[in-house]
Amino acid sequence: MKLLDYRNADFDASLQEIYNRPSYPPAIEESVRKIVDTVRSDGDKALVRFALEFDKAELTPRDFRVSDEEIAAAAKTLDKAAKSSIKTALAHVQEFARLRIPQAWKKVVRPGVTLGEQFVPMDRIGVYIPGGTAPLVSTVIHTAGIAKAAGVKEIVAVTPPGKDGKVHPAVLYAMKMAGVTEIYRLGGVYGIAAMAYGTESVPKVEKIVGPGNAYVTAAKKLVYGAVAIDMVAGPSEIMVIADETADPDKIAADMLSQAEHGSGLEQALTVTTDATMPAKIEKALAERKATLPRMATVDKVLDKGSWIIVVKDMIQAAEIAGKYAPEHLEICCKDARKVAKTIKAAGALFIGHWTPEPIGDFCAGPSHVLPTAGSAKFFSGLTVEGFFRRMSTVEYSEKAIQSEIAIAEKFAEMEGLAAHGRSASSRRSK
Prior knowledge:
Blueprint: E1 2-5, H1 11-19, H2 29-42, H3 44-55, H4 61-64, H5 68-77, H6 80-99, E2 105-110, E3 113-121, E4 124-128, H7 137-150, E5 154-158, H8 169-178, E6 182-184, H9 188-197, E7 207-209, H10 214-223, E8 228-229, E9 237-242, H11 248-259, E10 267-272, H12 277-289, H13 295-304, E11 306-310, H14 314-324, E12 328-332, H15 336-340, E13 348-351, H16 357-362, E14 388-396, H17 398-402, H18 405-415, H19 418-425
């Protein structure tokens, strides 16, 4: 844990180091590229090899796709509370998604000129569900569940298998409930490549969404263009803005919620106007982390990726938050709604003392697939609109085009595109 104080001379320089964090270590990209290229060229043969190499699972192409019988058997192993939690979270997430479904519109903007937009759901999308350090059941809901609400017909899910070749039963049940139509036990980089380029057993998709580790993130970046992607998102991160009214124990609990994700590259920060808060938070962190099962990764994050930053006022706190642009930003202070309105960049805002970040991870409603590493300055979290094709519509009457033919001709002349100009002039009334 590192402490920064606005009264120290190196404060601004230290902040710059925090702001300038990469989505993933650049050195890994070359090894990821080799895996992607091998899957692209060798197809199923490469998937068999990499499943054994990376997930220690002996698979044949016939084993890639999870059967209906396996999905049904998985459902029988879950208790009622697990099933109810999945169904309730799915209902909340899809309810929020349906509120945002884009609607076609048209408007006569000039006499005889009608402009508008129309939207059509994508046909086939892929969702990546992490399963290495933890089976992210909630990610199924926050990706596939939204695609289903959008009206996507074919929803493909890939997730890493265990050494026994099996997929966690809660993940399978969530996939079934969320409307996934094909499930493949393929993990990491090779799973992303299979969806992007297709193999003999895995037909390609149009878009890939979902979080993952640094290798998955690099893979998504490399296949962009062959498919669409949601964003390039790195390890998870949380920032808490707190004043003297905040509970240091709750802040510690919230910071640890992201530190336990597993890569050790996560970040957890608190920005506070209360100079006595750092010592209280550090004490609470020490007490709470001792009870967690993922001690090794938590310790790594607290040692290398955690800061408590003392600032002079909420104006400075909001400024730092906007420049850091965290994936998750909790606002635990007086007038939290007012402070929230001053934030310029964050993946998601969690407003008030009673809104912990994990409630957004699981069941609040908006997707937990969010931009990280400062990319909230130019990316937004996954929404239902991301599963639609948007088409602008343009319609002119014979009379309306007459007044704009000369404009088109002049642009064609300036750009040296004679055929463009003649296309317009061919519609000049005789």
